[in-house]
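Researcher: Before we compare anything, I want clean individual predictions. No alignment, no superposition, just each chain on its own. First chain goes here; please echo the sequence and then give the structure tokens.
Model: Echoing the first chain and its structure:
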Amino acid sequence: MSSRYLIGQYHPSESWGHRLDPRGKLWLAVFLMVISVFTSSALFYVCLIAGLIILLLISDISPAMIARNIRPFIILVAVTAIYHLLFSARNTDTWFTIWGFRLTEGGINLALSFSLRVLVFVGVAFFISLTTMPADLAQAMVGWLKPLRRIGVPAEDIGLIIFIAMRFIPVLAEEFDTIKKAQQVRGVDFAGGLINRARKMVYLLIPVFQSAIRRADDLAIAIEARGYVSGQARSSYMQFKWRAADIVFLVTGTMAVTALFILTRI
């Protein structure tokens, strides 16, 4: 697990990206993902992906690390592209035909834009999770949700859920890897065709679920022992303070994304 990072796993460093205020990073990430939904410009997505790669690089995330972690999402991108190539915009002009399937101009454009959008969302998730500690991210979200307490929204509970979910993604992933190696030592062969590998996944999923339930039970006891009361306002030792670098990052990033959105729609 040391050579690979997952969405939800924090990568410790003292880089520029790590020192940014989590509230600014979270706001820009939400703004970027929302505005990405209202355009289908491939140029817009390519520029965002390039910007996200630059942010990851200056946040002490190596190119090899980026390539290694983006690899599992290539399957999702491929499925998205194939779906739009085969089923979207069938009434547009045909560009060419492959094995009897008609690939249309509209289908190709949609496949390109939606696939790039998936990469944008994945890049945003990696930048936020790799450069922000789960506790800081949860606290930033709680700060946003505090005004909603008046209508009964449990801000602290939501923050705790987010923190636990992000904290235990790498833990369960490591547990999965450990159990897989243990089963291989016991003679379980995970090689072969897709059906055979899917059948052998039972030897992994059942122990992982059992471990997750045991951890959840221990966590519930620990939370109760520490006096956590659902719905009750809680104080925080860490207090966020806006710095000049945070304001410059937030304002510059918002203006750049907005300008790019407008220019690519002209």
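Researcher: Okay. Second chain, same rules.
Model: Second chain and its structure:
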Amino acid sequence: MITRREFSKSVVAAGTALLASEPVLLAQELQGPRNVSPNQDCDLLIKGGTVIDPGQHLHSPLDVAVKNGKILEVSRDIPESRAWHTFSAKGKIVTPGLIDLHVHCYDGVTSGVNADHYSVSRGTTTVVDAGSMGYLFVGRFVQDIVKTSVTRVYTLVHIAAVGATTGLDYAQDNLDWVEPGPAAMAAMENRPAVVGIKVHLQQSKSRRPKDLEMEFMKRAVQAAEACHLPLMAHINDTYYPLRDHLKLMRKGDVFTHCFNGFPTTTPLDANGKIRPEVREARQRGIIFDIGSGVHHPHFTFDVTEKCLQQDFPPDTISSDLNKDNAIDGIYDLPYMTSKLLAVGMELDKAIECVTTNPAKVFNYGVQIGTLRPGSEADIGIFDLREGNFEFKDAIGVARKGRQKLVSHAVVSRGQLLANVAV
């Protein structure tokens, strides 16, 4: 029986083709070895692109050489004679493989999507599942998804035993299903696939207003402390004000959906100014993550524009990809990055928010988010299209943008893939 990994590597399944072994797509750009010589010291050469790697302060025409699944060299005018295969990136942007801190990718289980189709085939080489499973089923997630995907998949353990995908409403009304000890134990037993704890706080997810919400948050923090991992907190439209939850969060914890439009949890006060407790939280080291999503005010252009105008950009940009918003080419991470360009974020800063910054949030066990020699050979190759594009936020408000980032090809774990999905 064909495995998920084998299926994902086919042209039609995950939207990619392994050009290094099967030059079916973009064959004119992938050139095999012309001569076998002692000078051929790299497996793949990405040549002629504009390299943007904010972690190394790079934004210039450079070539990228790959050897044995690692970045070998980034420099000007690397001779093609050194490479077994050369890929032309002329006119393209070359970045570290993108990292999406917030997806739901338990494919086939409620809201989960296929990570290989919606992520690696679109330039996002690493994703973090944001707590689809709690301690009861996270081991199953690791076996079913983490170990079978081409995409680098990591996960958070939801503090609710059943996770965010099934029965969350019930769990939040029954603290017997919210146990810090088992959650922490499951996280430690499933390292390095598990990189943190997740908590989901929202009025619509609980029928018992004020007697459980803060306890739910406190137990999530306890679990994170017990396993020495960060906490990601979905804090939207809560019964308690945002400041009460932020006070409990620690340096390195993540506030996802940070630019939401809910009155109780938006980062803005009634006058449209950044709340003092929000600035204080950033000073303490809290990470502010976009987590766009759709159909709910998790991300609004209005809030985002006002935050950017007050020099309060997000630390990380993420998609909240799930079955509700999995529309081809619209809610993937490059598209989400394009939304930030549309509201005034500079390109290098936006790339930093999907490469350098998310690479620092969790301990992935490997060096990603950079093209530094010796790091993992995860590379995004993008078209930066110029034109008039319309983008919508999570509540359907439109903004016009002049640039759109679209995946052209990707290198994942040292293997060259071509995007055919969008």
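Researcher: What stands out in the second chain?
Model: Confidence is low (pLDDT under 50) at residues 1-29. Additionally, The first strand starts at residue 30 and ends at 31.
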